[in-house]
């Protein structure tokens, strides 16, 4: 009996997959999108705003994970956990771009975000938490290979059957309610895409309410999306994905956030280089 090695299976086709961060990065600066998601250039740099936001998210994740298990932490215990994670995760690549702010100011800002959320929501019985940091995805364009993927900060349910999607923001700036209701602000687009992802696994008639928690100011916006609004957001997102997939040139786009960009040292818009070193 002769033996033979089976032919290897062909590589599975690559399915374009987008996150909200990827989409917004392309809108912000196509070259930054290329550096980060196509060329995958790692700089080791993390803005302190993102670092602080991650540590606040760590603390709120711990809070609700333990509430699910019928445990509960006081504010002081939660703040101690935040401090321990801050120290544990701090690294030399954390960069403070703002010339007049210090590491201590950002640390205190994170504490204030947690205090505000705790004071506004204690004893956390407004709804029943189903999951935290849940990975979700759905087909952006049914019938063709294209996915949206993301992580929802918290999903909960109410006695009336409504599903709540919660997203935490640690930025000092807060949009107006009109910007969010109109659906043009990136934050409302993000939670709307999360609703589309979560709803893809639930009965069509499931009601949803979206919560955007702006922690630095203790402001929470509650939004409901009409079906036609969700359809418009889905169509707009697919048009943006079409643009990304057909793009041959990724120009740099200067804007107010450039000082916070980890690629500024290799960006031709700042170095005047004709070619970018990879």
From the N-terminal CA to the C-terminal CA, the straight-line distance is 53 Å
CATH class: Alpha Beta
- Rg of Cα set: 21 Å
Strand content is 15-25%
So how many helices? 9
Gross geometry: globular
Structural class designation: alpha/beta
Share in helix: 40-55%
- The SSE order reads EHHEHHEHEEEHHEEHH
Task: Please report the total strand number as a whole number.
Answer: 8
Oligomer: single chain
CATH architecture annotation: Alpha-Beta Complex
**Unreliable runs, pLDDT <50, ≥5 residues?**
1-6, 273-278
Main sheet makeup: 6 strands, mixed
Q: Would you give the CATH topology?
A: Lambda Exonuclease, Chain A
Write down the overall mean pLDDT. 91
Number of structural units classed as domains:
1
């Amino acid at each position: 009996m002769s033996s033979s090695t089976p032919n290897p299976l062909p590589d599975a086709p690559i399915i374009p997959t987008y996150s909200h961060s990827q989409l917004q990065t392309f809108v912000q600066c196509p070259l930054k999108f290329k550096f980060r998601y196509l060329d995958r250039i790692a700089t080791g740099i993390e803005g302190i705003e993102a670092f602080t936001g991650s540590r606040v998210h760590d603390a709120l994740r711990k809070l609700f994970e333990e509430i699910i298990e019928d445990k509960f932490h006081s504010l002081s215990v939660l703040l101690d956990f935040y401090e321990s994670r801050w120290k544990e995760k701090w690294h030399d690549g954390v960069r403070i771009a703002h010339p007049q702010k210090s590491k201590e100011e950002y640390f205190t800002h994170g504490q204030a975000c947690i205090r505000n959320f705790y004071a506004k929501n204690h004893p956390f019985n407004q709804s029943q938490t189903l999951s935290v940091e849940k990975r979700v995805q759905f087909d952006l364009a049914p019938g063709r290979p294209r996915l949206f993927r993301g992580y929802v900060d918290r999903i909960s349910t109410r006695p009336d059957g409504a599903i709540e999607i919660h997203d935490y923001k640690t930025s000092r700036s807060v949009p107006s309610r009109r910007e969010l209701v109109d659906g043009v602000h990136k934050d409302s687009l993000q939670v709307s895409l999360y609703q589309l992802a979560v709803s893809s696994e639930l009965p069509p008639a499931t009601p949803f309410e979206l919560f955007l928690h702006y922690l630095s100011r203790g402001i929470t916006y509650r939004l409901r999306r009409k079906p036609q609004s969700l359809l418009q957001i889905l169509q707009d997102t697919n048009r943006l994905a079409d643009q990304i997939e057909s793009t041959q040139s990724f120009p740099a786009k200067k804007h107010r956030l450039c000082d916070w960009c980890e690629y500024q040292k290799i960006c031709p818009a700042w170095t005047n280089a004709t070619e970018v070193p990879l």
